[in-house]
């Protein structure tokens, strides 16, 4: 009786720390898949001249690799990471968490849209792909909470802590100051 192999198995019981991953030793035939757990070290992000550290360090990622007909690869990368740094509205510490589920196809010879920039021969640049996928998942502003009120434009107090009673009396609009110089004759 012929032994059949499952189409998808988990390769590593323990995560391996790596920047790149060689797909060739998986020895997959067309239609076969493997799931690999890796740990990828990433440098911090610099956003609006502020440093945001990536946590956890290194980042645990799950890589699904499927061999396609014609020798190409269908790849899926999943991870959860947070950025730690100042809130872009109130400057208090922020550490929002982001979930990433990215996919790549590498089918050499079938056009540039099917050539993954992260695959060179059989070597996958896991670190580059992880960094780019996380960067694409980031919002325009890193905030301590989604409803952060920021700083008061008049006095600079943190509006999250100031409460609803915080306000300033409005002075006259300086754009109308020239009108106060007009003298009417009686």
Chain-averaged pLDDT:
88
- Report the sheet-strand fraction: 25-35%
Number of helices: 2
Helix content: under 10%
User: Measured on Cα atoms, how large is the radius of gyration?
Assistant: 26 Å
Globular, elongated, flat, extended or rod-shaped: what is the shape?
elongated
Structural class: mainly beta
Summed up, the domain count is: 1
What is the straight-line distance between the termini?
A: 115 Å
Which key features would you list for this structure?
186 residues, 9% helix
Q: Which secondary structure elements does this structure contain, and how are they paired or packed?
A:
Layout: E1 8-10, E2 16-17, E3 21-22, E4 33-40, E5 45-47, E6 50-55, E7 59-67, E8 73-86, E9 93-94, E10 97-106, E11 119-120, E12 123-124, H1 126-137, H2 159-162
Parallel strand pairs: 1-4, 2-4
Antiparallel strand pairs: 3-12, 4-7, 5-6, 6-8, 7-8, 8-9, 8-10, 11-12
Summarize the structure.
The chain has 186 residues and is mainly beta. 9% of the residues lie in helices and 34% in strands.
